[in-house]
Every structure is written in structure tokens, then in C-alpha cells.
């Protein structure tokens, strides 16, 4: 039906004025005013054209029919409304005004007849052009360059490559290297290839639970951050950054005796989350006891006693690079540092040294010299038993490969054993951690928890370790690669990658919970 022309707003149609009731005209005038105002805010020419055509559907009734009190309450008067109408019509496109005028002139008789018959003006049609646009959600802030770079890392190997680009060669080799020919270092990773996963089907895996209790506290993943020395050397305040990232992820963080940040500093910087403290046997037993007391006072819940570092292994990369703490000035080192300004700037802001020892920051000290001067190679099982008696919380013994050693640890009341060869950094040509795990698991027989340390690079590695008897796995080099690549954000990215890979593997394996993973889900690869 063709509508009444908009130019009749002065009331040229006497019949419409006589039959339209004032209250209906009041609402129609208000709608007309709002529509005209909305029309002026439309930018798109096509939308403006549709809006203008729809305005003709509004009943046009002189404002003198509006009750005076209501007009005053609305804050309108006839003159202001006519001015708005005239301005809105003048701003409409010329072609639209002409076409609308023709259509209205042709259909005026029909409209007048309808109004005379019904006694009221024709109601307006709703217009999509006048409908307010949906609210646009606020855009998320653009990611930083660091965050964007970390998101491009889709595997732990990608973070390793980013860490290698940021760190000086000598510093990266300290993380990446192993003892002598590094065969054990390589075996730790490659030995996982000896096992294949055997999936099951027809199992509801719509919901997966990746959490597990580790020494009495629920962890969101079967993972923990391994104790790694000098984390603060790779990123400013690296121990605090790592502890905070672990707390955000809901997994344990273990602080090394050889940390840059002290026991108290890390506890103050990362008060939330599950914190463990790792201890070596020291020649000065009083100092060793003081470290235990400081850890207990700072609320480190679990003690991790490492027993495979009587002396330092021969790490030939460190020897060739003359690695010291801090770095000793050399021509090759200076040239390398010049190409690593980001790391150099961070190191310049940091207090480098061994934060838990009085000698921190004094001269250039190699890790081998540090170990030789402070660590005690004469420690035995009686010393381990005394530490067990003094520590009041849960305790894990780290550095075991032989099943008989695991049985002896259990006899002392130790709650967890960590199957580890120190990341291939101590004695070369020893079994890979995953190769030693089945025998240790058989000896423990469920009487204690088992944590696998060494060679874990994929979520499927974690699944294989759990199937072979481990309670959880610890992340050493992956933690340091993520930290070196992006600080706390890099550590969070490492955890995120492992979380996604573990969840994907559990779904495809047919295991909705970690407890559902059994030895039946792995097979030895033939020919190995």
C-alpha cells in the first residue's frame, strides 16, 4: 500500500485531522521525531533511503491536538518539531524526495479512504534501517611482540630454537649440554621411541580429567617444574617467574639449591602455589641444616634431596666455553654478547650469583668449582636417614636408577623417588630415565610415588611414562627453554603446549582419566 506523503506534516488532509485521535497522534509524533533523528545518524546512502521511505508510514497529526501537559512533559512544541521535520526532509537525497513524492501523490486517495474507514492513522512499519545496530564487543588488546612470538611456538622444540636465538652461546650450552659424549643426553629423548601407544576405542572420552595428586596435593597436570640451577641467569628473576607460572598452571615448582634467587626471595615473590625445595649434601652440615630451616620457615612443603651429584660430571661444552658465573670477559664472549642485547640488558639489571650461599657474587666461579668447594662426596644412606628425620614434610629422593636404591629409600620412609640421571649431565653411558623406570616401578610396587625426570619433550612422552608406572614427570630443559625464550610467559607457554598434547593423546588413546592409563596402553617397538 502506498503511504501518505511526508510533506503533509502541516495537516493538508482535513479528514485525517478530524478522525485521528489526539492520543494516537501524540505517539505518532513522538515516533516520527525519533525516526527523523535516527535518519540523520545513518551514514549509508542505501540505509538512509530505506529509512526515509519508512518515515512516510508514521501518522502525521498536528501538535495542537497534543494535550498541553503532555507536550510540556515531553519538552516539545510545534515550532521545534516542524523545524526538525523541514531540516530532515531537506537533507534527504534529491532522487529519494522526488520518487517518494510521486508514490505518495499516486496513493493519497487510498490512504485517505483507509483512514476515513478506520478512523485512525495507519501504523508505521518497522524498519531495519532504523533498528539500532547490535553492540559491538570491545576488541581485545593487541598481543605484544613477545606474546605473538611465543604463540608461534607449537612444540617445545620451537621454544628451544627461540631460546637459542636469545641466549649467548655459552649460556645456551650450559642448559643444552651434557656430560662427555652426551650419549645419555640423547638416549633420554630417543629412548621414548622404544615404546608405542596402543589405543582403545568405544570409550566415552567426551570429558577428560588431567589432574593428579602428587605427594598429597592436587596438581592440574601430571607435571612439575624440576629443580634447575641458575634460572635467574637466563631471565631476570627467573626463579620467581617460573614459580609464578607454575602457580598459575596449578603444578608444583621446585627451587634448586643453586638458584640465583634465595629461598626467601622466591617465597616472597611467588607466595601462592605449591613450592618444593631441592637440597644437595654440603660439606658444611650446619649450613645445610640452616637451608632446611629456611625452607621450612618459608613454607616449602616438600623436600627434594638430590643424591647423584657427589662431584660434577665432565661437561665439555662448559669447559670449551669457559663458562663461569658471571661470564668471564673473553673476546669470543664479548662478540657473542654484542649480538644478544636483550639478554645482556636483563643480566645487567640482575644480581648474579648463588643466592643461597654467602659467596654469592664474589668473583668468577665455574659451577664445577662451586660444587667441588661446597658439596660433600662422602654422604651415605645414614646421612639420608638423618635428613629424613629432620624434615617434617613429604620428601622425595632424586637421582635413582637402580631398583634396589628405590627399595632402600622406601625403607627410610621416603614418600617419592625421582628416576633421574641428572639430565645426562653427570655420568655418561648410563640408562635413560625411561629405560630404568619399569624396573624401579616393579620394585616400588605402589608403595611410593615415582616421578620421571629426563627426556620428556612431548605429551605422549608423559603418557608413556605414566603407563610404565610413573606418577608424574618433571620438566627441566623444557622449563628453562620456555623461561629463556619469554620469562614467565614462556614457561606458561610450555605448560600450555604439554596440556594440549596430553589432552589430545588421552582423547585418542581412549583414556578419560590418568588412572585409566595402564601398561596395556604401551607396546615395545620391534627391533629395539
From TrEMBL:
<dbReference type="GO" id="GO:0009060">
    <property type="term" value="P:aerobic respiration"/>
</dbReference>
<feature type="region of interest" description="Disordered">
    <location>
        <begin position="1"/>
        <end position="27"/>
    </location>
</feature>
<dbReference type="InterPro" id="IPR000262">
    <property type="entry name" value="FMN-dep_DH"/>
</dbReference>
<feature type="compositionally biased region" description="Basic and acidic residues">
    <location>
        <begin position="1"/>
        <end position="17"/>
    </location>
</feature>
<dbReference type="Pfam" id="PF01070">
    <property type="entry name" value="FMN_dh"/>
</dbReference>
<dbReference type="InterPro" id="IPR008259">
    <property type="entry name" value="FMN_hydac_DH_AS"/>
</dbReference>
<feature type="domain" description="FMN hydroxy acid dehydrogenase">
    <location>
        <begin position="148"/>
        <end position="527"/>
    </location>
</feature>
<protein>
    <recommendedName>
        <fullName>FMN hydroxy acid dehydrogenase domain-containing protein</fullName>
    </recommendedName>
</protein>
<dbReference type="GO" id="GO:0004459">
    <property type="term" value="F:L-lactate dehydrogenase (NAD+) activity"/>
</dbReference>
<dbReference type="InterPro" id="IPR013785">
    <property type="entry name" value="Aldolase_TIM"/>
</dbReference>
<keyword id="KW-0285">Flavoprotein</keyword>
<dbReference type="GO" id="GO:0005886">
    <property type="term" value="C:plasma membrane"/>
</dbReference>
<keyword id="KW-0288">FMN</keyword>
<dbReference type="GO" id="GO:0010181">
    <property type="term" value="F:FMN binding"/>
</dbReference>
<dbReference type="InterPro" id="IPR012133">
    <property type="entry name" value="Alpha-hydoxy_acid_DH_FMN"/>
</dbReference>
<keyword id="KW-0560">Oxidoreductase</keyword>
<comment type="similarity">
    <text>Belongs to the FMN-dependent alpha-hydroxy acid dehydrogenase family.</text>
</comment>
<dbReference type="InterPro" id="IPR037396">
    <property type="entry name" value="FMN_HAD"/>
</dbReference>
Amino acid at each position: 500500500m502506498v503511504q501518505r506523503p511526508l510533506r503533509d506534516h502541516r495537516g493538508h488532509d482535513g479528514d485525517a485531522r478530524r478522525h485521528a485521535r489526539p492520543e494516537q497522534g501524540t505517539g505518532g509524533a513522538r515516533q516520527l521525531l525519533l525516526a527523523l533523528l535516527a535518519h540523520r545518524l545513518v551514514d549509508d546512502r542505501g540505509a538512509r533511503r530505506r529509512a526515509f521511505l519508512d518515515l512516510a508510514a508514521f501518522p502525521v497529526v498536528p501538535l495542537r491536538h497534543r494535550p498541553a501537559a503532555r507536550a510540556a512533559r515531553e519538552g516539545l512544541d510545534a515550532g521545534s518539531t516542524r523545524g526538525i521535520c523541514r531540516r530532515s526532509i531537506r537533507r534527504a537525497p534529491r532522487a529519494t524526495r522526488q520518487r517518494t513524492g510521486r508514490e505518495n501523490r499516486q496513493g493519497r486517495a487510498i490512504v485517505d479512504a483507509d483512514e476515513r474507514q478506520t478512523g485512525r492513522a495507519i501504523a508505521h512499519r518497522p524498519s531495519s534501517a532504523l533498528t539500532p545496530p547490535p553492540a559491538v564487543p570491545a576488541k581485545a588488546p593487541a598481543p605484544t611482540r613477545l606474546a605473538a612470538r611465543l604463540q608461534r611456538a607449537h612444540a617445545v622444540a620451537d621454544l628451544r630454537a627461540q631460546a637459542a636465538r636469545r641466549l649467548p652461546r655459552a649460556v645456551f650450552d650450559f642448559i643444552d649440554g651434557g656430560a662427555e659424549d652426551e650419549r645419555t643426553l640423547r638416549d633420554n629423548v630417543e629412548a621414548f621411541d622404544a615404546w608405542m601407544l596402543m589405543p582403545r576405542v568405544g570409550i566415552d572420552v567426551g570429558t577428560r580429567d588431567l589432574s593428579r595428586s602428587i605427594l598429597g596435593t592436587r596438581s592440574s597436570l601430571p607435571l612439575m617444574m624440576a629443580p634447575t640451577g641458575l634460572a635467574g641467569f637466563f631471565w631476570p628473576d627467573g626463579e620467581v617467574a617460573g614459580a609464578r607460572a607454575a602457580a598459575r598452571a596449578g603444578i608444583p615448582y621446585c627451587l634448586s639449591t643453586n638458584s640465583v634467587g634465595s629461598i626467601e626471595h622466591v617465597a616472597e615473590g611467588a607466595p601462592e602455589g605449591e613450592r618444593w625445595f631441592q637440597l644437595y649434601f654440603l660439606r658444611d652440615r650446619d649450613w645445610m641444616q640452616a637451608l632446611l630451616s629456611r625452607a621450612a620457615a618459608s613454607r616449602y612443603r616438600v623436600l627434594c634431596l638430590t643424591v647423584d651429584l657427589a662431584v660434577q660430571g665432565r661437561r665439555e661444552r662448559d669447559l670449551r666455553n669457559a663458562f663461569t658465573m658471571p661470564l668471564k670477559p673473553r673476546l669470543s664472549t664479548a662478540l657473542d654478547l654484542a649480538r644478544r642485547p636483550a639478554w645482556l640488558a636483563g643480566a645487567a639489571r640482575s644480581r648474579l650469583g648463588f643466592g643461597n650461599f654467602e659467596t654469592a657474587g664474589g668473583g668468577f666461579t665455574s659451577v664445577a668449582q662451586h660444587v667441588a668447594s661446597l658439596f660433600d662426596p662422602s654422604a651415605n644412606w645414614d646421612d639420608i636417614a638423618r635428613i629424613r628425620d629432620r624434615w617434617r614434610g613429604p620428601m622425595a629422593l632424586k637421582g635413582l636408577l637402580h631398583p634396589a636404591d628405590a627399595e632402600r629409600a622406601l625403607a627410610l620412609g621416603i614418600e617419592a623417588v625421582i628416576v633421574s640421571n641428572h639430565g645426562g649431565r653427570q655420568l655418561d653411558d648410563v640408562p635413560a630415565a625411561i629405560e630404568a623406570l619399569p624396573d624401579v616401578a616393579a620394585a616400588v610396587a605402589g608403595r611410593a610415588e615415582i616421578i620421571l625426570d629426563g627426556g620428556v619433550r612431548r605429551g605422549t612422552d608423559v603418557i608413556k611414562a605414566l603407563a610404565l608406572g610413573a606418577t608424574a614427570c618433571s620438566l627441566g630443559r623444557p622449563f628453562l627453554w620456555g623461561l629463556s625464550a619469554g620469562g614467565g610467559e614462556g614457561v606458561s607457554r610450555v605448560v600450555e603446549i604439554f596440556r594440549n598434547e596430553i589432552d589430545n593423546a588421552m582423547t585418542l588413546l581412549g583414556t578419560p582419566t590418568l588412572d585409566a592409563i595402564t601398561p596395556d596402553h604401551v607396546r615395545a617397538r620391534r627391533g629395539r
